[in-house]
């Protein structure tokens, strides 16, 4: 199976009844500002350079962002903070992310998520994340990233779970950096010692950016660090 086949499988997924009902309800009712849009209303596949050395792992699509546009972090405030940062760091050819046909291209970076459907209250359940995990595992197996950037605590904890890591010293904090080592892992048999990293960042949600918990400078430092780690891998 290749990436295209995997993405078709993701788009067709209906494993989680609660999420199917919610994403389709949002797509039918729409937000007033987007009443002329034909909402995506399906699971959102990953996006970016399939040969990337950096894998970005977010939480889940926004109801009127990715669930509307069909591309990660596209059409909402989180993307409005993320893509300009990626552009400044040289990972994106432009700062805007409006729709799937806007010409945005990523270089050396691939963006995915632990959840593929917009969840009510932006809170997927543990069972729903379990249903999505095999998709992320397969993406990671094919990409084999040098650096995994986790946007938010939930993404970080899901990655630890996926790799069967139970190290009490690995705690989420903005800018925290941990080596990913081979061992008795459910996933990640491709890891080579000292060459793969887990980098943490606050999620670029408005809850963080408008309150100053995550600033432009703080976010730029994450992507500069990711670039440094790949250049010296």
How would you describe what is shown here?
The structure is a single chain. The chain contains 8 helices and 6 strands. The protein is an alpha/beta fold. α4 crosses α8 (216-231). It is globular and about 45 Å long.
Characteristic terms for this protein:
6 strands; six-stranded mixed beta sheet; 233 residues; single chain; globular; 8 helices; alpha/beta; Uracil-DNA Glycosylase, subunit E
Explain briefly what this protein structure is.
With 233 residues, the protein is an alpha/beta fold.
Topology:
Layout: H1 3-11, H2 17-29, E1 47-48, E2 54-58, H3 66-69, H4 77-88, E3 109-113, H5 126-143, E4 147-151, H6 153-162, E5 177-179, E6 197-201, H7 206-209, H8 216-231
Helix pairs in contact: 4-8
CATH C-level category: Alpha Beta
Q: Which fold does the CATH topology refer to?
A: Uracil-DNA Glycosylase, subunit E
Assign an overall shape: globular
Strand fraction equals: 5-15%
How much helix, percentage-wise, in residues?
25-40%
